[in-house]
Design a protein that fits this description.
single chain, Rossmann fold, 3 domains, two-stranded antiparallel sheet, about 45% helix, flat, disordered N terminus, Transferase
Length: about 500
């Protein structure tokens, strides 16, 4: 168990004045405009033009490769290119701050391509072609667009890992410290806090927070931080902060910073409630400051996916389970199935099934011992089962029965649910949805002996932004990470 403090290890102490006048980490000169206001905007990170070229080139590729010669360079193709780009722009698929994966964008990109082709076929001479020709063109167009966009996003993701975007965290100092520490623990998120803009300076104490980040208290300090550290992102913690710091935030936005609101407080949900968001950042629900919307939950579709996939996987995995059970029976004796009480949706207990890889000394140990992944007296075969997660395959029966889902927060024992609920106020909110075999936290490496606080945050972000496609993406990413060094 690693229910550690949310504050990172102390870094080298600096004064706020020193920090905000440091040399720009990306080597830019510090001679930019030193005041907020009109005319002070900087270019947003990234370039929309590259994605426009990708989408336009994908449409032209489909026309050249698939359509007959008379139709390849007709004005209809220009209309198609402009129409698809317009639809993608309206769907914010050219937002250069977000760096999605190909699976995240696939439904939106392919759906708009299909709509564009359907429209031009319906009102142009392309309608005289055999149906197989436009269908092939749509397929080629989708493949080219997704491949090109993934190449662009992949390059930007690699650049962000090497050089994360500097960010200011705005909000109550205690919560701002929690957020900044969590972001520093997740360097792959692409954002690196360089300072905290606190709205309650009376409780600051030291000039720096425990992670060595400067605590800024004035608009002038914030302005210098933006100029000298190349700040492009402002993370606003809580709606109250948005109101109290409205003037400063307007100045930061006028200077070209992208403003995001983060849900860092423990969630307060009613029965079946969920927060509306636009994604997550290191497990915090995140939305652009501005109009937004949420998605409806489709519990029927999720359950259908669970039943179909778990049933198919049980049939396919049956021989593997029988071989593993036979080996365990020969090596360790009877009792190859491990049954344990776990807490599921709405706090209801259920019996979870696994292949037995360890025999606890007593029922108390089984209920209260955190992890046995590195137990010395486990046989090499049991270590293999845990390392490859083959011991988890029996949980497919729990999914088929309806105790669990394929994707969702991992279920825990009653003892630890009570313990973590006291230590982490957002932990009980994980039980708004069926628990799962894998989840958003697990594909971000939060398995086994990792931070409970981080797991809790990712789990709630998953529920807040749930969609059936997100489940499919998590399942595909889980398959890609199937062989892992530790169990959960």
């Amino acid at each position: 168990m690693t229910a550690e403090s949310t504050v990172a290890s102390p870094g080298q102490q600096r004064t706020a004045q020193d920090a905000v006048t440091a040399v720009d980490p990306r080597g830019r000169a510090a001679g930019r405009r030193a005041a907020f206001g009109r005319g002070a905007r900087r270019p947003r990170p990234g370039s929309r033009a590259t994605l426009w070229l990708v989408d336009g080139g994908a449409a032209l590729s489909a026309a050249v490769l698939v359509l007959p010669a008379p139709h390849r360079f007709s004005p209809v193709i220009v209309v198609l290119v402009l129409g698809v780009i317009a639809m993608n722009r309206r769907a914010t698929l050219y937002d250069t701050f977000l760096v999605p994966g190909v699976l995240d964008e696939l439904p939106a990109v392919c759906g708009r391509i299909a709509v564009g082709w359907a429209a031009v076929v319906a009102v142009s001479p392309l309608g005289s072609l055999p149906p197989a020709v436009p269908a092939t063109a749509v397929t080629v167009h989708c493949l080219a667009a997704c491949a090109g966009r993934e190449a662009v996003h992949g390059r930007r993701r690699r650049a962000l890992r090497r050089r994360p975007r500097p960010a200011l965290v705005v909000g109550p100092v205690a919560v701002a410290r929690l957020v900044s520490a969590a972001l520093l623990r997740q360097p792959g998120c692409g954002v690196r806090p360089v300072g905290l803009l606190a709205d309650d300076p009376d409780v600051l104490g030291d000039a720096d927070d425990e992670a060595g980040l400067p605590v800024l208290t004035t608009a002038q300090d914030a302005r210098r931080a933006v100029i000298q550290n190349g700040v492009e992102t402002v993370l606003v913690v809580g709606a109250a902060t948005r109101t109290e710091k409205a003037a400063v935030l307007r100045g930061l936005a006028a200077y070209g910073c992208v403003l995001w609101e983060l849900d860092a407080d423990p969630p307060s949900y009613g029965p079946g409630g969920r927060r509306q968001g636009a994604g997550q950042l290191a497990g915090f629900s995140r939305r652009l400051l501005g109009p937004g919307g949420g998605r409806r939950r489709g519990s029927v579709g999720k359950r259908v996916l669970d039943v179909v996939l778990s049933g198919v996987l049980l049939v396919l995995a049956g021989p593997v389970l029988l071989v593993c059970a036979a080996v365990l029976r020969v090596m360790d004796g009877p009792g190859v199935v491990f049954r344990q009480e776990r807490i599921g949706k709405d706090g209801r207990p259920f019996t979870m099934l696994k292949l037995r890889t360890h025999r606890p000394a007593s029922a108390h140990e089984a209920a209260t011992r955190w992890s046995v992944a590195n137990e010395q007296d486990m046989s090499p075969f049991c270590h293999f089962l845990r390392r490859t997660s083959l011991d988890e395959l029996l949980q497919l029966w729990n999914v088929f029965r309806g105790d669990m889902s394929l994707v969702g927060p991992r279920p825990e024992r009653p003892y630890f649910v009570a313990k973590f609920s006291q230590a982490h106020p957002g932990y009980p909110a994980r039980h708004r949805m069926r628990t799962g075999i894998t989840g958003l936290a697990q594909i971000h490496g939060l398995r086994g002996d990792t931070s409970i606080e981080d797991r809790c945050r990712y789990d709630n972000a998953y529920i807040d932004n749930w969609s059936l496609w997100q489940d499919v993406c998590i399942l595909l990413r889980t398959v890609a990470q199937f062989v892992r060094p530790t169990g959960s």
